[in-house]
């Protein structure tokens, strides 16, 4: 029954939502992800050098990449290629391209409606822009419950299962011991709150990402003469034009979209929770940064995994096995047996930072539902650590099916909210664009021009030296423009 429901929701409803609404956002915003693509690198450079007493924009980017760059980039891509053929990679690209616009708006709105906790800390996300943007707290509570179930609980168990079994395959380490060690290390980080989580992500994410890209690029360079032909095969297979994969066009689309969404999370409403914690001058800054995060996740890291698999010579149509085994065997076929060890170590780092991200999403949901309740928070930490250990020693196929269903429902709630708040997102984007056109290198948000919105004055104080809009202009002048 779970499989039937999951196939309908993630195979039909999710595709329509992600592709349909993401395409609508892209066209209405005049392809904002392409217009601001050069600026993404500029904001990224600024974020690296930013020094504040709060969680920096760069740390928020690393935290979101901690979640986006996880098991889905290794196991998910392998699974997509196994079941959908090379064409699935193309549809992952399409999903990411239009998903960049969805991520741009959801993360910008997450910043706009964030709430200050004092001491330079903020909380925000879809639950907050649903309550304060749409005035629907009940709807926000539903989103928080789905986010808690999907990321806080289910995905943490699944990530633990993936890494402990990978280490068992590579090193013969008993899963119960690696599961226990993982739980202890994560517990130490959980106790430090969002600042410690962001600091650990800030350290580990660049290391794991650059190391993985470096090794996969080596495989690609070794096989460089075959890359153009393989890219052509990916495109032809996506439309059923390659005889070897002609019968997989339907599976290619479904698996490409499903695994693409699982990998980059654009539109799910997860990334805005961490985008909101950053200290920025304008909400759009995090929209730009988080769209860049989707690009890095799918167009760079997922493509590296896909080419690693397809160029290795190990993959053949009809391969039977899981995505992790396919990636491990593909790398080993090119570099030798140490490739299996490398994938296991890389997966361990991917999963460790992903669980930190998942944990924070659940914590943010609990804060929205119950406020600052230490008893609830401590209970949540114990349950999560218990699930991490449980996931290391149990078969979680049923949990995975359940998580796919709640993930699709999560996307449904968030994307409908995004559609209803899209005019606010456009208004915010135009304010940013107008300042850029006026030659302002670093646009600054003036809350007085958005006085009709339910914003937190502590999160968005009026900055000194910022001129307000002329009094003759109505508060919705940006929309009229």
Topology:
Layout: H1 2-28, H2 32-35, H3 37-49, H4 57-68, H5 71-84, H6 87-112, E1 115-118, E2 121-123, H7 126-134, H8 137-171, H9 175-190, H10 193-222, H11 227-238, H12 249-264, H13 271-275, H14 283-311, H15 323-335, H16 338-370, H17 374-393, H18 397-420, H19 422-437, H20 477-480
Antiparallel strand pairs: 1-2
What does this protein structure show overall?
The protein is an all-alpha fold. It has one domain (7-419): Amino acid/polyamine transporter I, CATH 1.20.1740. It is 74% helix and 1% strand. It is built from 20 helices and two strands. The protein has helices at residues 2-28, 32-35, 37-49, 57-68, 71-84, 87-112, 126-134, 137-171, 175-190, 193-222, 227-238, 249-264, 271-275, 283-311, 323-335, 338-370, 374-393, 397-420, 422-437, 477-480; strands at 115-118, 121-123. Strands 1-2 form a two-stranded antiparallel sheet. Helix 3 (37-49) crosses helix 14 and helix 15 runs antiparallel to helix 16. Residues 469-481 have low confidence and may be disordered.
List keywords for this structure.
481 residues; mainly alpha; Amino acid/polyamine transporter I; two-stranded antiparallel ribbon; 2 strands; 74% helix; globular; disordered C terminus
- Average pLDDT value? 83
**What does the largest sheet look like?**
2 strands, antiparallel
**What is the helix tally?**
20
Runs with pLDDT <50, length 5+? 469-481
Sheet/helix structural class: mainly alpha
Tally of distinct domains? 1
Q: Report the radius of gyration as a whole number of Å.
A: 22 Å
What is the tally of beta strands? Answer: 2
Distance between the termini: 50 Å
In CATH terms, what is the architecture?
A: Up-down Bundle
Shape: globular
Strand order of the largest sheet: 1-2
- Helix % is over 70%
Assess the beta-strand content as a share of residues: under 5%
Q: What's the CATH H-level homologous superfamily?
A: Amino acid/polyamine transporter I
SSE string: HHHHHHEEHHHHHHHHHHHHHH
For the record, the CATH class is Mainly Alpha
CATH fold name, please? Amino acid/polyamine transporter I
